[in-house]
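User: Can you predict the 3D structure for this chain?
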Amino acid sequence: KDPSVLHWISPNSKTYDRHILWLKSEKYVVIIEERKGYSLLWTAYIVKYKNVERRLQREYDTYKKASTAR
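Assistant: Here is the predicted structure, written as structure tokens:
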């Protein structure tokens, strides 16, 4: 596992699991949706704004906290 790439599953997706890959040092996000039998590139974008960085960090921290509590 590369520590410069943060990975979590989005809690906001209602149908399929959406895997978030945040290349923090590159300020880039890739979202992949896991379907039955295949994966789909949902979107990818450059993180331009600090508020988006804060939201991503908050989402990642919440995911990690919930996954370690299990």
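The first strand starts at residue 5 and ends at 9. Residues 50-69 form the longest helix (20 residues).
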